[in-house]
Amino acid sequence: MTLRLNAPLADVAERASAAAPAADSRARILMCAPDHFAVDYVINPWMEDQIGRTQRTQARAQWENLRLHLAREAALAYVPSAPGLPDMVFTANAGLVIGETVVVTRFHAKERRPEEDLFRAWFERAGFSTAAWPDKVAFEGAGDALFDRARGLIWCGHGWRSSEEAPPLIERIFETRAVGLRLVDPRFYHLDTCLCPLPGGWLLYYPQAFDERSRDVIATLVPAEFRIELDEREAASFACNAIAIGDRIFLNACPPRLERRLREAGLSPVVTPLSEFVRAGGAAKCLTLELPPTRADLSSLRLK
Ligand SMILES: NC(=O)NCCC[C@H](N)C(=O)O
Fold it and tell me: Pathway involvement (predicted)?
């Protein structure tokens, strides 16, 4: 294999992983370059007053910084970006993948519907089997469905983007318990903006983003000493929108109280500032989609 001259470090790492045997057990993550990223419409409160205000160079640098950090820990795959689809960079909303199966997103936001066919085509090329999903049931993928390995369940958010009908369907398709949580604050419109299951059984979340019944459900399933609760300011820094790989956690901002809790939990925070993407209502977790670790063929589906 010939490496391009001046290939960035991450490129070399990814090519090395492309040559790795199928036993590569590193995390695999799907990303989409921000070539066409912008705020062109308003579909969540973060986007208000942000139309035309994103800076392409800065967005590219922030995304690249996140990518380089992740490339040290995980094998990365890329779905090509497309003109006119500024939010496609948020691959968390491509679908929900567990094992070999994907539920491709059915967007609530009509502005994002054209992304569905592009994501579906990528999943099919990558060899995933696509689960049947009713057209009328909105479900925005891993933005609203988070697999909690420690508990063997899927936390499902609904109320803004995904329908309340989604969790029972998810439960049936993946044969895994799905726990529905109602989101009540429009700033925390996707579950991944306000809740993050962590390795070791910790749960990072912002309680006020949920209705009372959902807060009770969380309290029943997660013992108090495992709950890391953020206040409004902390949550508004997109600290819950985090990616945990091994003992590292990548996030847009890490307020001091959270940093202490994470370190006590044995996790090392890595701050990758993503202010340009926050203008669109997303940060680290939204820019990534976790894929199953053992599909060696994914590393050939590269952007360039
Ligand atoms: N929270 C996520 O999973 N994704 C961020 C999506 C941002 C995009 N502007 C949206 O409102 O759909």
Answer: Amino-acid degradation; L-arginine degradation via ADI pathway; carbamoyl phosphate from L-arginine: step 1/2
Q: Which atom of ligand 1 is nearest to the CA of 86?
A: 9
Q: Which of helix, strand or coil describes residue 250?
A: strand
Identify the active-site residue in 158, 190, 194, 254: 190
Establish whether 69 is a catalytic residue.
no
- Ligand 1, pocket-test mutation among 190, 191, 206, 290, most atoms within 8 A of CB: 190
Calculate ∠ Cα 275-276-282, nearest 5°. Answer: 80
Does 286 participate in catalysis according to the annotation?
Answer: yes
In 3D space, the residue among 23, 28, 27, 50 whose CA is nearest the CA of residue 39 turns out to be 50
Strands of 74-78's sheet in order across: 74-78, 27-31, 289-291
Does the residue 16 lie in any domain? no
- Quote the number of domains for the chain: 1
Condensed to tens digits (0 to 9), the pLDDT of residues 100-147 reads 999 999 999 999 999 999 999 999 999 999 999 999 999 999 999 999
Supply the CATH number for residue 168's domain.
3.75.10.10
Residue 79 domain-assigned (yes or no):
yes
Write down the ipTM of this complex: 0.98
- Tell me whether residue 11 is in a domain: no
pLDDT digits (tens, 9 = 90+) for 169-210: 999 999 999 999 999 999 999 999 999 999 999 999 999 999
Residue whose Cα lies nearest atom 6 of ligand 1: it is 282
In a domain, 131, yes or no: yes
